[in-house]
From TrEMBL:
<dbReference type="InterPro" id="IPR006059">
    <property type="entry name" value="SBP"/>
</dbReference>
<comment type="similarity">
    <text>Belongs to the bacterial solute-binding protein 1 family.</text>
</comment>
<protein>
    <submittedName>
        <fullName>Arabinogalactan oligomer/maltooligosaccharide transport system substrate-binding protein</fullName>
    </submittedName>
</protein>
<keyword id="KW-0732">Signal</keyword>
<feature type="region of interest" description="Disordered">
    <location>
        <begin position="21"/>
        <end position="42"/>
    </location>
</feature>
<feature type="compositionally biased region" description="Basic and acidic residues">
    <location>
        <begin position="25"/>
        <end position="42"/>
    </location>
</feature>
<keyword id="KW-0813">Transport</keyword>
<feature type="signal peptide">
    <location>
        <begin position="1"/>
        <end position="19"/>
    </location>
</feature>
<dbReference type="Pfam" id="PF13416">
    <property type="entry name" value="SBP_bac_8"/>
</dbReference>
Length: 421
């Protein structure tokens, strides 16, 4: 799932072209009849992610019984919904609600494909602050959270009795007997998605956060903290604790192979990897990430999937009501039971269904410690230069500071060239 949430956004955002694509008439219905003065539509249409409808069906049935509105659920791969909405929305055959990763919220909003929603303050308080922030763009809320995910610490219980409290402890383990493994710990720290938590934990940041608004003109990936973070990452490579094969595009698959073969005692990965490790016969333990040497938590990127109201819907108020219903505590709990997607609902964090589930609890706790991936379009310019800097430093081809300064220059130049207003 990491790939779903961290894919660079490549579509064009030229304002003149986007204006023609946006909704021209709020009375153009996509899921039912014209809404006027709160009249109920005959039908609402929701696009759910592929093979995830089972987690939403119960809530939809109860909504239909309570409000007398038919809800049509269609399963469409999440990353295909954006392009399909571009075509189906203006043609008046699109949905009232879609589901999408939060890092696409900014571009979707700019393009005029999704609409901001208005909900009561009591509603937003149901969810973790970070998940609501993830679905907020330019001061407006563009949906409610469905699920959250983030990298965590995963270990082989046959080689490690319990998760270490700190990376210092993990370092000592990796320099010791390693529980009989070849490597004590492996992490894809030349991929910025995974490395961000280290850089950020030392004080680096992608874009300056000004009370919830990200400033793309203030990139903090070459500040003192970020440099310290990359120096720490690089030390694992210099000391031979990471093999040369976990640099670059094949690093992730190499790490998975070493872990499933019993050659690595522990890894950094996300909930999307749990089942594959179990299927390989590994008795895994899962915990939040260990603390950094400076005593701070690793601030991993968190990804939030949300339900969003289509800007083409003529039934926005009722669509919003449906979004509230399918993300409330009861609905979220049922969805977790059926899909294992972890809902960022505050009350459920303490519910036994998550609190007594080692893996789910680890993801929930780490999600609270992490930060949402930036959801502004300028984030598309960060991934490649940041990864290049990480690889240059890890391979010894550049000093950490020089590598990061070069990355930031490239990021700023690309933002200026591609996102100037």
């Amino acid at each position: 799932m990491k790939k779903l949430l961290a894919l660079p956004l490549t579509f064009a955002l030229a304002a003149s072209a986007l204006a023609a694509c946006g909704p021209q008439d709020d009375n153009k219905s996509t899921g039912g009849k014209k809404e006027a003065a709160g009249d109920k539509p005959d039908k609402l249409v929701i696009w759910e992610d592929q093979e995830k409808g089972v987690g939403t069906q119960d809530a939809i049935k109860k909504f239909e019984e309570k409000y007398g509105i038919k809800v049509e659920l269609k399963e469409i791969p999440m990353l295909d919904q954006q392009e399909k909405l571009r075509l189906d929305g203006p043609a008046k055959k699109g949905p009232d609600i879609i589901t999408t990763p939060h890092d696409r919220i900014g571009p979707l909003a700019i393009e005029g494909l999704i609409a901001p929603i208005e909900v009561a303050g009591d509603t937003t308080k149901l969810y973790t602050e970070s998940s609501i922030n993830a679905l907020t763009y330019d001061g407006k809320l563009y949906g409610l959270p469905k699920s959250t995910e983030t990298p965590v610490f995963i270990y082989n219980k046959k080689m490690m009795d319990k998760a270490p409290e700190s990376l210092d402890d993990l370092l000592a383990f990796s320099k010791g007997d390693k529980g009989g493994a070849q490597y004590g710990y492996l992490a894809n720290w030349t991929d910025f998605y995974f490395a961000h938590g280290i850089l950020s934990g030392f004080g680096g940041y992608v874009f300056k956060d000004d009370n919830g608004t990200l400033d793309p003109k203030d990139v903090g990936l070459a500040n003192e903290g970020a440099v310290k973070g990359l120096e720490y990452i690089t030390s694992w490579y210099k000391d031979g604790l990471f093999p040369k094969g976990i640099i670059g595009e094949k690093a992730g698959s190499t790490i998975d192979g070493l872990f499933t073969e019993g050659k690595a005692a522990s890894v950094m990965n996300g909930p999307w990897s749990f089942q594959g490790y179990k299927d390989a016969g590994i008795d895994i333990g899962v915990a939040p990430m260990p603390k950094l040497p400076n005593g701070e938590y690793i601030k991993t990127f968190i990804g939030v999937k949300g339900y969003n109201v289509s800007a083409f819907s003529a039934n926005k108020e009722w669509a919003t009501k449906l979004v509230e219903y399918i993300t409330n505590e009861e609905s979220a709990k049922t969805r977790f039971e059926k899909t294992a997607e972890i809902p960022p609902v505050v009350s459920l964090m303490k519910d036994p269904i998550i609190a007594d589930n080692e893996a789910a609890k680890a993801v929930a706790v780490q999600s609270e410690r992490g930060v949402p991936m930036p959801n502004i379009p300028e984030m598309a310019e960060v991934w490649a230069p940041a990864a290049n800097a990480l690889q240059l430093s890890a391979t010894g081809k550049s000093k950490p500071q020089a590598a990061l300064e070069g990355a930031v220059k490239t990021i700023n130049d690309n933002i200026k060239a591609n996102h100037s207003k």
